[in-house]
């Protein structure tokens, strides 16, 4: 096992990684910006280094300098920031440090959505109809759409997290959206490449947790339902998916394993798919080459610690459990508690005057803030993840209602009232929902 770990992230995910590392006897190093000096994860690490202004978490040299200063043996990037930056992964290893993540080549291959689609298709993973090369102009996109069939989705080839995409119902709308997406992609990702693929108006978003083991095997650990989204951003997830039958699960997990094997995957990753709820067909969407925000619900239903598995695999060890012996037990739900208003989901940062986390059977809170801290507009709005588990979905929903009612936050705006609404929504309670559920709740 590695002896010391620098966590190149902040907030709840840094705190969560530090918790597991401490349990394993690994010395931890936190890095923080000037704005984050008072956050809980900074105090909980064995050592902390101020790396500068707000966006310093994206400064690879500052992070590496902190690792050298503290004699860290390894770097865990969490999610976001530098986590899917292949050049950073290479720089970490070039510095003689252990990279707690997938091979840089796998990050590169999956970082471009067009390349990823082509690789997956070649590996036998189902891919929706779409373009195999970047669209050089709106005219080229319109010509491709005529073959694919409307409606279509215009997507940035680079980037991720649901950013840089728009649907189009006809050629005129496609031409307009092409220009918007291309400009956004160029501005946000430094790459204006755009692809066009079939758009499914009614679809579910289901993903599979994969783990590339130290011995070269890739295993698929189960699926998560991620269809509760606003602006293509996930808000709530559950495992297992209410839409997935045992037969469909076998196909999903088999395809995800093929996807990982196609790129020689190691460590934790996620294969995201779109599921047609009517026909039961699914299509590869993208691979996230990192730990997902929603990983705790997989942990809850399998009784494992994915961060421990990451650290063990990076150390050349077995993951800490026998993948062949794992069995999904019960149900789990994650609610992303964000600093945003619960109606329009606009950011609402501020000083935290009161922070009271719920407790109870099957309740877990991964939080990045506490009373006396401040949620700033410089970062993502995520404050905490409320994770609720139990023997079945009905029990989990009842526990989640109590947990939401018992979560008290005063200061920043928060979306807890939205979750009160969601947990009583007939469509959500039925389990027969899709990615349009929030739009229907707000109509």
Automatic annotation (TrEMBL):
Stretches assigned to the ATP-grasp domain: 117-315
Keywords, in A-Z order: ATP-binding, Biotin, Ligase, Nucleotide-binding
Biotin carboxylation domain boundaries: 1-443
Keyword DNA-binding: no
Signal peptide per UniProt: none
EC number: 6.3.4.14
Single GO MF descriptor: biotin carboxylase activity
Protein name in UniProt: biotin carboxylase
The organism of origin for this protein: Actinocatenispora rupis
